[in-house]
Design goal:
The structure is a single chain. The protein is α/β, with parallel strands linked by helices and 440 residues long. The protein has 2 domains: 228 residues, 3-Layer(aba) Sandwich (Rossmann fold); 174 residues, Rossmann fold, CATH 3.40.50.10490. The chain contains 16 helices and 10 strands. The strands form 2 sheets. The protein has a 5-stranded mixed beta sheet, with helices on both faces.
């Protein structure tokens, strides 16, 4: 792995535990060919994802939308499912959003992400918010996502019922692609009909790969994050691919080769990513969707599972250590310590826990992460470590790019298209049919 990356990857215990070194070497050779193909495709301008770290012109219009959404706003609701919602949530957690004790900056709006569709949740939220000072941002690439459209139409109807219909254009903004010649984009059509401010979603970037586009940059700006630092971090990882680094020394390629080797030679059918930081919990859900929707095709793929440490040590690790040997583990940790109180010796001794005296919460978290990693390896479970020196925009941007590249490279090794989702489309079509028929 190149030394310029703002994280470190250790695969030694995964290889040693599973005993798949020969198969891994073979997969690395195949991965080198995948990398060569990606570099050539990039030179031809055929990999839109690779252009995102260097993009700059979209920040100013994104900032204009952000200022509109924040002006005189008490609550801001971001509507979008899948990558359209998870991207922003994973970024927002850099500020502590979504963690216990989080409070927005004084004077800033309370920002809510509605990614799941639940009538009780929606009704309760709309009933508690002051709709006069609530704004909504709807994100959908196609503009036809049923869940997001239903949320938008429900919110509009609530505003109308509350007597705010004539001001409705001031309450909504939309991020969606252009309908194009003869195309149909219901969300775009709605935005045009009611004069909602609109940003263009990149038509060549699918939702789960869109975190570095304005799909992620708008939420990042809403939370006061630095979009250029996020992209710069992603750019360091991408540069290590484009500069000709071999698969063995390229962290995402090595991870992809190992994952597929374990699946094919050791029957490893699940991949578990556990983050030892609350502020990375939504990131693990973002990885889960990315991996599942990109690679689960033609009877291929492994099951991604999102985890959070140390809490999941109490709910999952018994199974992991003493259950079926069908899992590949990624332990994600942050080395930088928080400014947390040191345990007072008097209190520690009163509890009969002298070992806690002079220690901090971070020290215990890191000790538990190391203990879990070492125990998994000792039990013959393949486990890799990914360590961030600190959790900031640059390191998170690098992680996003790492896992997008790892997924795309794995798809190349599997000979599947990482960008489509044909099976999901079947279910979407059927759901709309049932709705039109009044199915209950």
């Amino acid at each position: 792995m190149t030394n310029s990356l703002p994280y470190a990857q250790d695969l030694s215990r995964a290889l040693g535990s599973a005993g798949v070194e020969k198969g891994y070497d073979k997969r690395l050779s195949q991965a080198d060919k995948v990398l060569a193909n990606l570099r050539q495709a990039h030179q031809r301008g055929e990999v839109p994802l690779f252009a995102l770290p260097g993009r700059r012109k979209d920040i100013e219009p994104a900032m204009a939308i952000v200022e509109t959404l924040k002006k005189d706003t008490s609550d801001l609701v971001i509507l979008g499912t899948g990558g359209s919602g998870l991207s922003g949530q994973a970024l927002a957690q850099l500020t502590g959003w979504g963690t216990p004790g989080y409070r927005p900056v004084e004077g800033a709006p309370h920002i809510h992400f509605f990614d799941n569709l639940d009538a009780v949740t929606m009704a309760q939220a709309l009933g508690q918010m002051d709709l006069r000072t609530t704004r909504f941002l709807a994100i959908s690439k196609s503009g036809g996502t049923a869940e997001t459209l239903m949320q938008v139409l429900t919110a509009m109807s609530a505003l109308e019922a509350a007597g705010g219909g004539k001001y409705i254009k001031h309450h909504f903004a939309v991020l969606t692609e252009s309908a194009g010649d003869g195309g149909v984009n219901p969300l775009r059509k709605l935005a045009q009909a009611y004069d909602f401010p609109t940003l263009d979603h990149d038509p060549e970037i699918g939702g789960r790969y869109a975190v570095l586009s304005n799909v992620g940059m708008v939420p990042a700006l809403l939370f006061g994050l630095d979009p250029q630092a996020l992209r710069a971090g992603a750019g360091t990882v991408l540069a290590s691919l484009l500069d000709g680094t071999s698969a063995r020394d390229l962290a995402p390629a090595a991870g992809a080769a190992l994952s597929l080797t374990l699946a094919e030679e050791a029957g490893i059918t699940a991949t578990i990513i556990t983050a030892y930081a609350d502020r990375l919990s939504k990131f693990t859900y973002w990885v889960r969707q990315l991996w599942a929707e990109s690679l689960g095709k033609q009877g291929k793929g492994t099951l991604p599972v999102a985890g959070l440490g140390p809490v999941d040590q109490h709910s999952q690790v018994q199974l992991y250590l003493d259950g079926p040997r069908d899992k590949f583990f990624t332990i994600l940790t942050v080395a930088d310590r928080a400014s947390c109180p040191t345990v007072d010796e008097t209190f520690a001794r009163a509890a009969g826990m002298a070992d806690f005296a002079g220690r901090t919460m971070d020290e215990l978290v890191n000790a538990e992460a190391k203990a879990t990693t070492d125990t998994l390896a000792a039990r013959g479970c393949p486990v890799r470590s990914l360590t961030l020196p600190r959790l900031d925009e640059q390191s998170l941007g690098a992680l996003f790019m790492h896992f997008m590249l790892e997924t795309v490279i794995a798809a190349g090794l599997m000979n599947v298209d990482p960008y489509n989702q044909p099976a999901v489309e079947e279910a979407k079509i059927l759901a709309k049919k049932y709705l039109s028929e009044g199915a209950r």
